Recover the amino acids of this structure.
């Protein structure tokens, strides 16, 4: 990498080399039996060269030919993509505990045995079909640039996701468990899944009017996705953020605080620097309902004459960094999950969402199929409902939150509590 | 390369092994509004090795040739671990040996077009919407993906097939005060750069729709009778039915009980086929990623389930014939069962007939975003029109449809006499399939649930 950086720097004015190596294994069980084990060993390098204020970019999986990679980056300079930003000099960052070497011990039999154990314990508590996947990975990233930054990080992660499926469907009650190394699923986890499923087995066809709606942590991403779009430097630059100019203003209910915390190393994936070498920090997006910040990478910070906020991340080595909030947290509220359920006279729980990506995201609209929708009556889960759609606009919906769960759970898109609303449109097919 | 691959799997301790090596060449040009955000051509490569041993099947993907021994040992270990834990051993359906070199029919090979010409074409199409004041921005990009696939198996298969995919399109976003609307535009396919030329009219049309949406009314949630245009009908087929024709999704599911060949799932007006061999369509290929020749599969005949899509593993498990539908995104993934070109066969009605049969309802057009989970599916439409007395009236927006496999197909009561295939794809069943192609005629569907906003 050092040699590549040196060659690239000579070919341009500034240069940056980013590399990643990742090994991973996945195990899946279907109907409580082992179905698949697969593995992957992937590597890649991407290169950015800035010359005369223009940006060149290239990538490869195998660094067999440095000249060719540099030549590809130089060729892309000809397009004239602007590259006026400075590459940061970052050093002396705090050390986080992101890697547990035990993740690589024991082979895949550890995950197979754990999945089999969870299947056995769940099958003692429920009659629903049980599917489970477990996944472990170890990853290195390294970033060097011509300003003198030379940073690397090693991560480990383990995740297990158990699902209990409704009959003749792949709709399920599920919850992910994540940690930095292998961890056994505990009784509370198994109890939550079995209890939620068993109470909701009965199919019910209620009237959709006057229902409260509870988003589980697993489906909160439907709402946060729209907030991420609105607070991104990209949306701001493209003039499609509905909250541009509202920094410091109250945009949602005062119960909501949304922040990005890459430094939390109690969960996998903690970061002290982003994929461009900019330091990461605890970053408030919304504090007690008030819009605090927009987030940027180097490119869009420069375009908007703002400071980079440490949010330049790459989807893969073939992608240039773009602003992203990858470590979202929503502050917990006051009620336990059971108390939340007990507070609902009549409502549905959104335990799975379909079509979160098809609504008008920049405008804040969502219109999702709910699969499954658990039905609550008289403070108890009483069954599940088919053919349900829930819709709204986050700038209306989030203005009035009834209550927020007092615990956060690692979920797709961040660490979220469950959130209860009484102002959403619910449509149920009769 | 084929000899190198043969050498790699010759060391495998396996009942069967195969290895796929791919070089993936990508060219991307992307505009954010008027500004060029990305341009470049790059090449990546990697291997996917699969080991079948003692009834255990295990794949491993790796990028460095030096890792081949490590990958082999890892896959052998995983296969042995599986063999000791499986409910029933994995078997592969018998397949003919695949040999040869296969290249698609191409009109203007994009590899021979200078990048400057690609840039100018992208810039020119991108500038069409931007000439209107109320167009806030665009995200228009040119994409070119060339997969050079080499495949070798211990059964003697040994072939190379190239897949060439080109696309030009993205998002057009309009804005009026705080109201933001967007539409998607996309042209492309599997047979060359020529497909992207002279498409300005499509960009003009979609820019006009993005502008019209600013004055359209949001639809109220409820149950509606609808006419779907061919793009929506194609997505409908893909989401509402196609995924449940993928044998791997139902192999170990209670859904398998209801998805028996011969089961009536749809209205008798409905005939659905998947055929990756339709020439010059987006989903075209000769051989899938486990070396099985692609073939036409009638999936539904007059509403009755007539077939399904298979890998070698699922064909053996179901005791059904091979179809050649086991496909991977690229060298990072092992193949899974995917649709190729899935479409509703055209019927005899004109659009006017269908609108007249509809009477009062909605005419909805062009999908955006779609998702399936088990028997449930949801997808969005970019725009639609209120229909009254069989006549198209005002535009409506914010249309998202939800449905259920077991009921919705029975509500497709009439099919049009046109047939249009999609030019761009992006099905995300764990891996992204940019060649996932769907098609159909206009269709009339009763009792569709729409979420509104």
């Amino acid at each position: 990498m050092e040699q590549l950086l040196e060659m690239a720097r000579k070919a341009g004015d500034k240069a940056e080399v980013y590399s990643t190596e990742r090994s991973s294994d996945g195990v899946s069980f279907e109907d409580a039996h082992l179905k698949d084990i697969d593995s992957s060993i992937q590597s890649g390098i991407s290169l950015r060269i800035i010359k005369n204020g223009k940006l060149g970019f290239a990538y490869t999986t195998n660094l067999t030919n440095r000249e060719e990679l540099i030549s590809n980056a130089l060729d892309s300079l000809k397009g004239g993509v602007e590259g006026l930003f400075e590459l940061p000099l970052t050093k002396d960052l705090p050390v986080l505990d992101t890697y547990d070497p035990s993740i690589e011990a024991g082979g895949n039999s550890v995950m197979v045995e754990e999945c089999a154990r969870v299947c056995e314990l769940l099958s003692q508590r429920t009659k629903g079909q049980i599917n489970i996947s477990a996944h472990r990975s170890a990853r290195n990233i390294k970033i060097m640039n011509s300003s003198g930054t030379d940073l690397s990080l090693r991560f480990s992660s383990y995740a297990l996701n158990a699902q209990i499926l409704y009959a003749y469907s792949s709709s399920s009650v599920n919850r992910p468990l994540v940690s930095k190394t292998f961890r056994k699923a505990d009784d509370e986890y198994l109890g939550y899944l079995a209890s939620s499923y068993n109470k909701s087995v009965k199919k019910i066809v209620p009237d959709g009017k006057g229902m409260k709606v509870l988003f589980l942590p697993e489906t909160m991403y439907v709402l946060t996705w729209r907030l991420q779009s609105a607070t991104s430097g990209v949306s701001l630059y493209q003039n499609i953020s509905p909250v541009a100019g509202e920094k410091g203003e109250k945009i949602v209910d005062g119960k909501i605080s949304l922040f990005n915390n890459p430094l939390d190393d109690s969960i996998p994936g903690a970061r002290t620097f982003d994929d461009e070498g900019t330091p990461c920090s605890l970053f408030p997006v919304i504090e007690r309902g008030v819009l605090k910040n927009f987030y940027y990478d180097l490119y869009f910070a420069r375009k908007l004459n703002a400071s980079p906020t440490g949010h330049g991340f790459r989807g893969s080595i073939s992608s240039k960094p773009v602003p992203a909030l990858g470590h979202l947290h929503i502050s917990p509220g006051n009620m336990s999950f059971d108390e939340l359920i007990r507070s609902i006279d009549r409502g549905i729980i959104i335990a799975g969402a379909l079509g979160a990506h098809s609504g008008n995201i920049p405008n804040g609209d969502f219109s999702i199929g709910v699969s499954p929708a658990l039905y609550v009556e008289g403070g108890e889960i009483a069954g599940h409902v088919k053919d349900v759609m829930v819709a709204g606009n986050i700038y209306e919906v989030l203005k009035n939150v009834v209550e927020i769960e007092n615990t956060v759970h690692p979920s797709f898109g961040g660490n979220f509590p469950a959130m209860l609303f009484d102002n959403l449109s619910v449509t149920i097919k009769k | 390369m084929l000899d190198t691959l043969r050498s790699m799997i010759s060391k495998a301790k396996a009942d069967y092994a195969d290895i796929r090596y791919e070089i993936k060449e990508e060219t991307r040009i992307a505009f954010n509004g008027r500004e060029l955000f990305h341009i470049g051509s790059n090449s990546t490569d990697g291997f996917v090795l699969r080991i079948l041993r003692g009834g255990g099947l295990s794949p491993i993907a790796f990028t460095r040739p030096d890792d081949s021994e490590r990958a082999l040992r890892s896959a052998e270990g995983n296969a042995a671990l599986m063999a000791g834990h499986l409910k029933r051993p994995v078997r592969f359906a018998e397949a003919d040996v695949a040999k040869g070199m296969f290249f698609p029919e191409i009109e203007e090979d994009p590899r021979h077009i200078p990048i400057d010409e690609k840039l100018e074409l992208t810039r020119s199409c991108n500038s069409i919407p931007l000439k209107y004041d109320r167009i806030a921005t665009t995200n228009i990009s040119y994409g070119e993906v060339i997969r050079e696939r080499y495949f070798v198996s211990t059964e003697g298969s040994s072939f190379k097939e190239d897949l060439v995919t080109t696309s030009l399109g993205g998002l057009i976003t309009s804005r009026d005060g705080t109201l933001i609307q967007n539409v998607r535009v996309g042209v492309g396919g599997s047979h060359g750069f020529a497909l992207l030329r002279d498409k300005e009219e499509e960009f003009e049309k979609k820019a006009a729709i993005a502008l019209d949406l600013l004055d359209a009314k949001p639809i109220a949630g409820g149950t509606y009778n609808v006419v779907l245009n061919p793009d929506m009908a194609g997505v409908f087929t893909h989401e509402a039915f196609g995924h449940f024709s993928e044998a791997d999704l139902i192999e170990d599911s209670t859904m398998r009980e209801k998805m028996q060949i011969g089961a009536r799932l749809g209205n008798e007006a409905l005939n659905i086929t998947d055929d990756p061999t339709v020439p010059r369509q987006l989903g075209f290929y000769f051989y899938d990623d486990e070396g099985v020749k692609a073939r036409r599969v009638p999936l539904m005949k007059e509403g009755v389930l007539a077939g399904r899509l298979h890998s070698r593993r699922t064909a053996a498990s179901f005791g059904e014939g091979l179809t050649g539908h086991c496909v991977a995104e690229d060298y990072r993934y092992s193949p899974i069962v995917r649709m190729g070109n899935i479409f509703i066969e055209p019927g005899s009605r004109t659009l006017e007939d269908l609108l007249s049969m509809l009477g009062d309802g909605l005419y909805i057009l062009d999908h955006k975003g779609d998702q399936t989970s088990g028997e449930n599916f949801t997808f969005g439409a970019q725009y639609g029109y209120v229909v009254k007395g069989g006549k198209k009236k005002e535009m409506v927006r914010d249309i998202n449809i939800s449905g259920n496999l077991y009921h919705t197909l029975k509500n497709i009561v009439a099919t049009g006499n046109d047939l249009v295939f999609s030019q761009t794809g992006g099905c995300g069943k764990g891996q992204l399939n940019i060649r996932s192609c769907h098609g159909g005629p206009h269709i009339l569907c009763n009792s569709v649930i729409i979420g509104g906003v």
User: Anything to note?
Assistant: Chain A touches chain B through 81 residues (CB under 8 Å). Residues 202-430 of chain A form one domain.
